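Q: Got a minute? One more chain.
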Amino acid sequence: MQNETISTVLQLDITNNIVAFQNIQNQLDLYLLQFRKLYVSNNTQNLIESIGEYSIELDSVATNFNSIRQISVNKHRQINDSNVFYSLQRGVSILSEEKQLFAYMHSFGKMHYEKLITAFEYLPSEFFRESTNIIDWGCGQAMATMVYLEYLQSKEIDQKINQIRLIEPSEIAIKRGALHIKKFQKNINTITINKDLDSIEHKDLIQNKSITNLHLFSNIIDIDFFSLHQLLEKIEANFKGVNYFVCVSPYITDTKTNRIDNFVSHFNKFDTTSIKKIDNQKGEWKGNGDWTRVVRVFKSIIN
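A: Always. Here it is, folded:
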């Protein structure tokens, strides 16, 4: 009870439970920040996996997510080591070995794909007529961007993409992500930012304010390992103008979902439109009965 954070939380006004939750989340962010290890790379902004066995196999498969994922599925089965799966820490570990990349794509890739491909269906038709910047936050192997590019391809939508920014603390994952993007579009302007979300600086996020931004958050907002408050400040400061957000996560607990809703509600002070809200627990969605999803798609004009 002598802990300063606990003392502060106990003194918060809980008359409005939504405001109280936001304030508690901010205090938690400040507390956890003391113990976070920041991941900042000195590498350039043009990281990409060099030519090797994986890139050669990538060249030989069809340009769609499932064909690309199958490479990792086959590789993971050859490794046949359950310890690799456990090292993923349910998908929140910062990956450092190629075999972890295979295991992640094998174990979580299919569910990522299904959540994303259905979420993109809710983006309005007028959005696809606009030039856009894509920001893939905590991108891992760039699964969210890959699925979006496949979605455009499958719908025969010729949207102009000005640039793609991949943000990810794992160097090995972001390099593979950039390679995946090149598979879909060889000449697209891809910028890699090899940092965790707390380490992002304003200079990393400078955008052309006249171009619409598409923010992709796949299985990231519900993770407590970064400051939600700081992330919101950075988005608000650097992405003036029209922004679309596609946020997908599994349903884990109401608290985790509240963190996502806290993220969304922050933008209500701007001209914000909720496009789609989905909450599916086990047995309420496709897959083997264990799949869950939380989807938030919205538009916000930040001023």
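A: The first helix runs from residue 4 to 10.
Q: Perfect, thanks.
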